[in-house]
Write a structure and sequence with these properties.
With 421 residues, the chain is an alpha/beta fold. 36% of the residues lie in helices and 15% in strands. The termini are far apart. It binds pyridoxal-5'-phosphate and zinc ion (ZN).
Length: 421
């Protein structure tokens, strides 16, 4: 089930740090570390399994102010900081008192990942995928993407000096297209939706030698990068877990990895063991996981996306069933909001906290509001909401809603007449 990435017979010692194998999430079968993503026994998804040594808070705190401070918990070599990469992470965790007051929450934080190098959380996962691609000797660094991933792959590849080819649906927002094309000459726009683009990528990965598709054949390594969101939130809260966390869901990978991060921190004794609730956020126009959650079933029925939240428009989410499992197990929920609510969510975060988020963040904030109003989220508990992207990439979503309050002659009289004084 794995494409050939490398001619290398042997990986260098420590190529994947403390990772010891890839393990099937369905049957537990283990395979050697390499460009594999599906279990040879049951076709279930593989994930990275570790043999962690003792790791202290002090060791982590002494590390760089980026995701590599957690390198002992990632499938990357000990010398990862010496290789060129975009050094993402350690973004702000803002105490969001204005938004909390607006929603009636007692304590709320926004984890603001819009300030990563290409302005989304995808820089985290791509940094880990780049490390794997390098260790496996890949010649091409590639991805199918709903937009942000393509930006991150194209930029990281440019910095690392590796050829990139990124595939996107052709109807993607213009700023996201430019944000990839500026870094790579090989932006491929596909007439189809993300799920079509993803299928094409799987075909190419099977046919072509030497390609590392970050979210296909090196997906187990790539996905681990999202754990750093969970690690940072815990560290920035003073080495403790929040009571509740709201996370956007497209493929569902990020949500499952934040949960994995929290469980690893507990297992390593880096935070106190306590219950936490995980909530997923989707746009109604692409809400297969929320629909399954509300229906009470275990199966995810794929949908054809139709929403302004294009970065979340994955109709057949690879990790959907695991999202359902985590949200149910932790006492959370999966909610969805329509496109008008997404727009209002963008405005709400901007006007209360001075953060311009993209449609994915609008979805998450609007779901936070809905979860609170419907009593699914406890307003008395400490809550974190993740903002995964940046509003300048989805200007069209709010461009008609906001603008100049007045257009006037350059005179005091004209200003006074506006009543804005
Ligand atoms: C801004 C943004 N937020 C959230 C997500 C969801 O990520 P995942 O596919 O890990 O669920 C994406 C995915 O592309 C994204 O671009
Ligand atoms: Zn298996």
């Amino acid at each position: 089930m794995s494409a050939v990435i490398t001619e290398k017979a042997v990986l260098r010692e420590g190529a994947f740090g403390n990772a010891e194998a890839l393990s099937c999430r369905e049957c537990g079968h283990r395979v050697d570390l390499g460009p594999h993503y599906a279990c040879p026994e049951c076709f279930g998804p593989l994930e990275v399994a570790y043999a962690f040594p003792a790791i202290t808070r002090e060791e982590i705190e002494a590390g760089p102010r980026n995701i590599w401070r957690y390198k002992a918990l990632l499938p990357v070599p000990a010398d990862i900081e010496t290789t060129p990469n975009t050094e993402p992470g350690f973004t702000r965790l803002l105490k969001a008192d204005n938004l909390a007051a607006e929603l009636g929450l007692s304590a709320l934080w926004v984890k603001d990942d819009s300030t990563n190098p290409t302005n989304s959380f995808k820089d985290r996962v791509v940094a880990c995928a780049l490390s794997a691609a390098r260790e496996l000797g890949a010649k091409v660094f590639a991805c199918p993407s709903t937009g942000n991933l393509a930006n991150a792959v194209a930029a990281a590849g440019a910095r690392a000096g590796i050829k990139t080819v990124v595939f996107i649906p052709s109807d993607l927002e213009k700023p996201k297209q430019v944000n990839s094309a500026i870094f790579t000459a090989n932006l491929v726009a596909v007439d189809g939706n993300y799920d079509d683009v993803n299928k094409l990528a799987q075909e190419i990965a099977a046919e072509e030698e030497g390609w590392a598709f970050v979210n296909v054949n090196v997906r187990p390594f790539y996905a681990e990068g999202s754990k750093t969101l969970g690690f940072e939130i815990a560290e920035q809260l003073g080495w403790r877990l929040p009571d509740q966390i709201v996370i956007p869901v497209a493929s569902g990978s990020q949500l499952t990895k934040v949960d994995k991060a929290f469980r690893e921190l507990i297992a390593l004794g880096l935070v106190e063991d306590k219950p936490y609730r995980v909530f997923g956020a989707q746009a109604t126009g692409c809400s297969p996981v929320a629909t399954a959650y509300k229906g009470g079933g275990d199966a995810i029925r794929p949908v054809k996306p139709d929403t302004i939240a294009k970065s979340l428009a994955i109709g057949n989410p690879a990790d959907g069933i695991y999202v359902l499992d985590i949200c149910r197990r932790t006492g959370g929920a999966v909610e969805d909001v329509d496109d008008d609510e997404v727009r209002r969510g963008i405005l709400l975060l901007a006007r209360t906290e001075g953060i311009f988020t993209e449609t994915a963040g609008g979805t998450t904030v609007a779901c936070l509001r809905k979860l609170t109003e419907t009593g699914q989220l406890d307003p008395a508990l400490e809550t974190v909401v993740i903002n995964t992207g940046m509003g300048l990439k989805t200007l069209d979503a709010v461009g008609d809603t906001v603008g100049a309050a007045a257009t006037i002659d350059p005179s005091y009289a004209a200003f006074a007449a506006t009543g804005l004084g």
